[in-house]
Amino acid sequence: MRTTRTACLALIVISLGAGAHLSNAASKATQAFQKLQSLAGDWAGKDQDGSDVKSSFKPIASNTAVMETLAMSGMDEMVTLYSIDGDTVVLLHYCPTNNQPRMRATPVAGEVKKLEFTFEGAGNLPSLDTGHEHKLVIEFQDNDHIVEHWTWRKNGKDTETTFHLARKNKG
Known about the structure:
- The chain is an alpha+beta fold.
- It has one domain (2-170): Calycin beta-barrel core domain (Lipocalin).
- It has 1 helix and 10 strands; from the N terminus they run H-E-E-E-E-E-E-E-E-E-E.
- It has a 10-stranded antiparallel barrel.
- Strand 5 (88-94) and strand 6 form a beta hairpin.
- Mean pLDDT is 89; it is low at 1-22.
């Protein structure tokens, strides 16, 4: 009887620990997603070559997703949707090249200073050699300044484009 009681108690402690771990991981994703939600509004800046860049962030679908619309000089708009998926934040990027990369970031503990999204696949991408966005790193410098590092991959070669953005107004 005592062995059974000890085993049950051990199982409860392990279960509570696992639940706390899952809850902690989910809270990191929630915290990271809230950081994306805090970007609501219009942003403007420059890329690494000094060309103008504009972006806007808008919470959508009852605040379960954030839509970013990004426009650069001489290029069609790009739309990226961010949302929580379990203990991660995912994105779906709608590119003017007519493919739709999917990426995932696993937030780390502590204050969210950066989200690193890695490629998981893409819709309408006939081959991995076809040009596509392959990685995104968002650096949160402060409430009014972010840096986005987009990595374009074509034929196995990566090219990074960096956007330095400052908040124009809150959404």
